[in-house]
Amino acid sequence: MSLELLISNISKRYDHTTVLTDCSFKFESGGIYVLTGPNGSGKSTFLRICALLETPDSGEVKYCSDGQLLAKDISLRRRITLLLPKIGVFNTSLFNNVAYGLKIRNLGKNSALRVAHALDFVGLLTKKNQQALTLSSGETQRLGIARALVVEPEVIFLDEPTASVDVRNTEIIEDIIRKIRKDGRSIIMTTHDMYQARRIGGKLLVIKDGKIIDHPG
Amino acid sequence: MDFIVEGFAQAFSLIIHLDPELLNIIVLSLEVSGIALIVASCLGVPAGSALGLKKFRGRGLLISLSNAFMGLPPVVVGLFVYLLLSRRGPLGFMGLLYSPSAMIVAQAILIFPIVTSLCHSAVVSVDPIIRQAAFTLGATPWQTSLTVMREARYGILSGIIAGLGRAMGEVGAILIVGGNIAGYTRVMTTTIALETDKGNFELALALGIILVIISVLINIGLHLIQRKGMVKILR
User: Fold this and answer.
1) Which residues of B touch A (CB under 8 A)?
2) Which comes out higher in pLDDT, residue A108 or B152?
3) B235: pLDDT confidence band, cut at 50, 70 and 90?
4) Contact predicate B53/B145, CB 8 Å
5) Domain A4-214 listed as CATH 2.60.120.1440
6) B14 CA: distance to closest CA in chain A (Å)
7) 3-state secondary structure (DSSP) of residue A23
8) Chain B partners of A88 at a C-beta cutoff of 8 Å?
């Protein structure tokens, strides 16, 4: 597992608003990076561009593995995953939500154990047959993490994973993030909460005036 | 007043005794409408989904047309299909006029815009975040489209059932292209029209009762499907 992400001079505008200007950064494999900054600073846009969900107006997003530049195709997309602030719950059970990523990779046949493990990891195993739309906000976020983790991505992007979550669930999710970190995956997350950024640890980055700044600490 | 009471009594008697003529008419009606529904759904669900999922030139016009054609007058459709299938028409060589096949074609044309339009509405009403979620989990464009359609399944099913409701109650088009031939193209609605004209109310009433029961069952089915889909809206 070695997937590096290089961002070179990316810029993004929406209508007449410039969101990102000439942002460059190198995300090392297996690192944990926390992007922070005020609301509307462009954190989510940056993350969505990194996760290939959006394209920049200029600049480049490059993924490299063992020094080789990777094509931005489906096989690369299946090595990374992005957890959106609103995860997009499928109208079915928790089990089927988590099994989704395996099914689309034709790994659905023996998925039960992996799904159960992922649900257990986020503390939702006992609710595996429950309709996912009935979960609370905090549980929904945890479901999103299980859904993302079951496919064992090498890079996991988390966009404000605790933005609409109560204190208890925030603690649970932070614990889960720390556990993911131990697996050696790259984690790139955004938060507007500076204290949370420090609690999570890892490299702190600040997005300010459309630029990404390597925070000294 | 007596003739109404007597008509109902005889109608119930026909139903209870499973009158063969009555059963034949019901079976043919279900066959014609069922096959028309399958044909219209096989074409309408992909068409409606494509309108909801893909951006292409002329899409707006097609959506408007599909919405407008939901209210197509059945007699006009009947006339159109008649002209196509009549001996002098472009498809006259097929010899389909005054056959159940012609009735299926007419009903399928009537239902197709309903299924297409309601399927399109169901697909576009799916939260755009679902598409993004599928993408971020590694779905291909095709898998993403199927995921959106799966999320729209209750709306799509509602559209199909609404189409069945329209087909079962339709009379104008199938009367023109089917000819109302006893034992061959005579279905529930055309029989009710004919028997009422003749003053034979018992068969007309018996079929009317059956038709109302079918209509109620269709609506109960529609309601159950919509209620099952409601969990999504409530969240």
Assistant:
1) 127, 129-130, 132-140, 143, 147, 150-151, 229, 231-232, 235
2) B152
3) very low
4) yes
5) no
6) 46
7) strand
8) 127, 129-130, 132-134
